[in-house]
Amino acid sequence: MAAPGRLTDSASLARRLLWNRGVGETAGPQPVVVLLGPTGSGKTEALNSISRDCGSGVVHNQPLDFAQDEPKTVEALAQIAFGLSRRWPSRKPPRFTRFALGLIAVQATLPNDREQARDKLNRAIKEFAKSPTAERTAEIVQTLSDAAEPLLDPLLATTANLLPTLIRYAGRRPLANAKRWHAGFPEAEGADPLDALIQLSIRGRADSAEMTSWLTAAFLADVRASHEVMAKPEPKSPCECVNPADQDHYHNWIVLLDNVDHGAGFQFLEDITAARERHLGQREEHDPLLIIATSGRWHPEWESDWHPPWKSLENKPEDVSVVSRCTNVGHWRTNPAEVRPTASYLPVLLEPLKIEETARILGTSVRSPAARLAQRASGGLPRAVHTVQNLLDGRPLDQARRDALWPDDPADADSFRERLEDLRLSHHLLDVDLEEFVTAAAWATAPWLVPAESTSLVSQPKIGRILTELRTGLWVIAPERRGGTEDHTVLHPWIARTLLSALAARDGEPSYETQFRAMLEDTTVQRDPERKAYCLLALGEFAEVVTMLEERFDRIPHQDWVDLLTLVSGAPDNKPLQHDHDALYQALVREDQRGKPDDRSTVRNVLARLVAAAWLLANPLAGPDDERKKLVAQCFRELAPLSRRSDVAALYEAARQTERLF
Question: pTM of whole model > 0.85?
Answer without folding.
Answer: yes
